[in-house]
Amino acid sequence: MHSSRGAAQRVWPWGAAALAAMALAACAVEVQNTQPARDLARSAKPPGSVYTGWRVFQDRCAACHGPAATGTAGGPDLLPRVRDMGSRRFVGLVLTRYDWGQPAAQSTGAARDALVDDIVQRKGGQLTMPAWQGEPQVNAHIADLFAYLSARAQGTQGAGRPAPE
User: Topology of domain 50-154, per CATH?
Assistant: First the structure.
């Protein structure tokens, strides 16, 4: 019995060292592989096509917001509004909210319901921007719209037609 115990002691120290070396090697590979992913994430542009977004914008939005998204008498300049806006907020506003100037607290709940009732009953309020959630072209290209407006807001896309991608 004593001899089998000695054999186990001779094998176990080597096995533990090998196991520890494999664990450290796996960590080193993981650490080495995360840096390129972080670099790529920082340099990535928003998903979507700037060119396709420009085309949808010209078709659905330019009549009110102007062909360069800088505003008209019928709609505000979108560039300062989109500049610091993330894609999730943009999608929420375009698909479900109709007044970008309305405080966020009024976009849900009882305050929103009261505003909708006033508009429906023609007591007040004004529908200044349609909710686009039922529009197939806007739904299909919402990421493209954000890519275009974000590029305009960040200054990486000029006022003219972008090059097809």
Answer: Cytochrome Bc1 Complex; Chain D, domain 2 (1.10.760)
